[in-house]
Amino acid sequence: MNDRAVVVEDLSRHFGRFRAVDGISLTVDRGEIFGFLGANGAGKTTTIRMLCGLLAPTAGKGSVAGFDIYRQAESIKKSIGYMSQKFSLYPDLTGRENLNFYGAAYGLDRKQIRVRTQQLTERLNLQDFVDRLSSSLPVGWRQRLALGVSLLHEPKILFLDEPTSGVDPVFRRKFWQLLYELAEEGVTIFVTTHYMDEAEYCGRISIMHQGKIVELGRPFELVERYRAANLEDLFVDLIRNRDNVNAPA
Ligand SMILES: Nc1ncnc2c1ncn2[C@@H]1O[C@H](COP(=O)(O)OP(=O)(O)OP(=O)(O)O)[C@@H](O)[C@H]1O
Ligand SMILES: [Mg+2]
Question: For ligand 1, atom 31, which residue shows the shortest CA distance?
Answer without folding.
Answer: 41
